[in-house]
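Private note to self, pasted from the team thread so I don't lose it. Backbone tokens:
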């Protein structure tokens, strides 16, 4: 279980760094979250 939480934290940190430093990634991340939240809301 500890490995799961470490992997989630690592993915979150990598996502934040990618959004900050790689142009265009923020739009992709936003679209992905909107799709996921749209499915969860139904």
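Design output:
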């Amino acid at each position: 279980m500890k490995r799961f939480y470490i992997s989630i934290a690592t993915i979150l940190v990598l996502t934040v760094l990618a959004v900050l430093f790689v142009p265009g990634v923020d739009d992709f991340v936003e679209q992905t979250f909107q799709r996921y939240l749209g499915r969860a809301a139904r």
